[in-house]
Amino acid sequence: MRNVFKFLILIILIIPCMFTFSACSLIETSAPISIESIEKTGTEGLVDTYTITYTDGTSTTFTITNGEDGQDGVNGIDGTDGQDGENGVDGTDGINAVAVSVTGIEKTSTEGLVDTYTITYSNGTTSTFTVTNGSNGADGTDGINGIDGEDASIEDIYNAEINSGEFSGTFLEFVQNYLSVSEDDSVAVSKAILSAVSIYCNFTNPDQSYQTAGAGVIYQLKEAVFQ
Question: Which domain holds residue 118?
Fold first, then answer.
């Protein structure tokens, strides 16, 4: 604001000088001299330089020193809150949602390795998805021939059937079901079966225990002697 006042005072001082120059010119010549323009031609710090150009081609300069920026003013007090606006118009009621579930999935087409499946929903709409199957792999190389198996006894076969769960009866029932026995041989077979025993041993000490198992045939019985 002070800069404006300085500039106005300067103009007020210059105007009388203009008339003075004009009066002098009337004495010596008929062409009056006047100001053609005033413009700021330089700034250095707070000092602005102005150049006055006259109609006769001459010019003069003057400076104006601007004041420094003042300190920021204190923030004003917050204004009071405005009144609440009026309530808006109620919106229209929404449409009731209907639960949609899947009612069926089935393969509907096949093209090459690509199968197309169709999903049917409870609202009657459908969607599809595809599954690309892998192509058949190359045949593997033949395996090495296995070694010949050892001859298995009837006990081995019976134990294998028991372990696999295919048979759950006694050894005698197994023989009667799977072996052909004539009436003439039945007595001998029965005696032979009664002579077959299984042996199980268990040895235990404080540190570890051992178990062994096997089979045998009773060929001689002795009367037990108890004391």
Answer: 102-132
